Amino acid sequence: MDPTLPDMDIEGWFCQKCNSPLTMVKVNVTYMGASFAVDLPSCANCHTTMIPDFLAFGKMLEVEKLLEDK
């Protein structure tokens, strides 16, 4: 996991869609042509990926603003 992101303990977390346990997987996030590999909780069954609040409204928002300013 990115050392600037807090570790996520997802033990006991389940997919709301299909009730399968979540596992950490490397996901490619793309925005405005830039791609970033991030470890995120994801469902192995339906492949739904959870983006936690601290990431969506923190790091991703910072990156979005930096890319839009270029």
Could you name the key traits of this structure?
two-stranded antiparallel sheet, Ubiquitin-like (UB roll), single chain, 70 residues, alpha+beta, 2 strands
Could you characterize the architecture of this molecule?
The protein has a single domain, classed as Ubiquitin-like (UB roll) (Roll), CATH 3.10.20. Helix content is 24%, strand content 29%. The protein has one helix and two strands; from the N terminus they run ββα. It has one helix at residues 53-69; strands spanning 22-31, 34-43. Strands 1-2 form a two-stranded antiparallel ribbon. It is elongated.
Structural topology:
Elements: E1 22-31, E2 34-43, H1 53-69
Antiparallel strand pairs: 1-2
Quick gist of this model?
This protein is α+β, with helices and mostly antiparallel strands. It is 24% helix and 29% strand. The chain has a single domain (1-70), classed as Roll (Ubiquitin-like (UB roll)).
User: Which CATH class applies here?
Assistant: Alpha Beta
The succession of helices and strands, N to C, reads EEH
Shape: elongated
The assigned structural class equals alpha+beta
What is the annotated CATH architecture? Roll
Uncertain segments are none
Mean pLDDT: 81
- Supply the number of helical segments: 1
Question: Strand order, biggest sheet?
Answer: 1-2
Per CATH, what is the topology? Ubiquitin-like (UB roll)
The separation of the N and C termini measures 27 Å
Question: Whole-number radius of gyration?
Answer: 13 Å
Number of domains: 1
What is the tally of beta strands? 2
Beta-strand proportion: 25-35%
